[in-house]
Amino acid sequence: MTTTAHDTGIVSRPRPVERLVAGQATSDGAGVKLTRVLTQPLQRRLDPFLMLDAFGTDNPDDYIGGFPDHPHRGFETVTYMIDGRMRHRDSAGHEGLLQNGGVQWMTAGRGIVHSELPEQEGGRMEGFQLWLNLAAKDKMTTPWYRDIQSAEIPQFTTPDGVTVRVIAGASHGVAGAVQREITEPLYLDLHFPPGARFEQPLPAAHNAFVYVYRGSLEIAGTAVPRERMAILSNTGGGDGAVLHADAPARALLIAGRPLKEPIAQYGPFVMNTQEELFQTVRDFQSGRFTAA
Ligand code: CO
Known about the structure:
- The protein has helices spanning 5-8, 274-285, and strands spanning 17-21, 24-28, 32-38, 49-57, 67-72, 75-83, 85-90, 95-99, 103-107, 112-118, 125-133, 144-148, 155-157, 163-168, 170-171, 174-175, 186-192, 197-201, 207-214, 217-219, 222-224, 228-232, 240-244, 249-256, 264-266, 269-271.
- It is mostly beta strands.
- The termini are far apart.
- The protein has a single domain, classed as Jelly Rolls, CATH 2.60.120.10.
- Strands 1-22-19-24-17-14-13 form a seven-stranded antiparallel beta sheet, with no helix packed on it. It has a seven-stranded antiparallel beta sheet with strand order 2-3-4-11-6-9-12, with no helix packed on it. A four-stranded antiparallel beta sheet has the order 5-10-7-8, with no helix packed on it.
- The structure holds cobalt (II) ion (CO).
- Cobalt (II) ion binds next to β5.
- Cobalt (II) ion is lined by residues 67, 70, 72, 77, 114.
């Protein structure tokens, strides 16, 4: 699929970079090493997104423990696997293998217990996990889950040669694999050849960021090195993102409409109030997450 909109320019006032974020090295699950790119202090700024973890290693010691059984309530997890294989099982009876270029979209809703365990003892494991908040009225919705194989992710190439994988939302007229009404998430994986430029219109009120995971990019005059998140400014009347690569590069472009609701987090539970978190812990301890 091709588009000509790109040739004429569809973004007239590119959103500048507000700041660059390096993320924090940490570990989660059973000792999986990762970089928490979107950390808790950025949850309000990047509402409706609550977390972005990046993992990428050739050393099995960094991932072999995986993420044994653990609960979630109140939001959605979106796992995008660049390289490697992870087996998912959850208390709602879902099971799937997430691998090379595939996405797993899980709505925890009122509660789920799941495990994510590597199905390999060697080789590279690389990918991302994004947490997308649910509106207060949807936090106790029925858990939902979908495995999206790599070939099922809509993809197109711009005249500049940028390959665009549309995981959520829509880009240049191509609808992504998943749509969400309230937060309207846009989740693109962009692969740039040398000298390529990519434009993406964005509603001014939507929070947006870019994470570069290969090479480097230039965004509205700011150089964005590898393994940095660039938060795009919402002020100044910008109408979208313009990304340019001098050399081969790959990056995620993520945007969404903020919920503007209170955020109360206790580990894997994200609700609106402390009282709802206490109730969540009581529900979990009394086994309500695993009941059929
Ligand atoms: Co999880």
